Amino acid sequence: MSLQERIERDFIAAYKNKDTDLVAVLRMLKTVAKNRQVDLKRPLTDDEVLDLVLKQIKQRQESIDMYSKAGRDELAAKEAAELELLRAYQPHPLSAEELTALIETVATEQGATSIKDMGRVIQAIMNTHKGRVDGKAVSELVRNRLSS
Question: What is this structure's pTM?
Fold first, then answer.
């Protein structure tokens, strides 16, 4: 089942169960996907739908930070609840040990020996593990690995 089909199925189930929070989040996600599909004039692939989900997750994280800094805890809590609902559509993240092992493997495969090779290693990891790794964490771990 594609990610878009899963979102549609979950939307219908949430609507029937009167889960207003999940219905609102999935309706927004469906709208973003539909707008993107209209822009591209073709159906979306699973990777494109995943990109939209990840973009929405990032927007929620930024909103939480802004609302928290402004002292708007009630709005930050609302965004945090939406963030948790969106994370159900994100692939399971790699553990710290898996990420460290992946960095070692990719750095060896790429022949990375200095900090100059950092971009190549990060790009290879981000391309193959989209949505499963945090870019900041990868950057920091790759930097530590290549600078030692």
Answer: 0.78
**pLDDT tens by residue, the chain, 148 residues:** 899 999 999 999 999 999 999 999 999 999 999 999 999 999 999 989 999 999 999 999 999 999 999 999 999 999 999 999 999 998 888 888 888 888 888 888 888 888 888 888 888 888 888 888 888 888 888 888 888 7
What 17-25 contacts at long range (C-beta under 8 Å, 24+ apart), as own/partner pairs, is 21/81, 21/82, 21/85, 22/85, 24/82, 25/82, 25/85, 25/86
d(CA 143, CA 148): 9
Radius of gyration of the chain (CA): 18
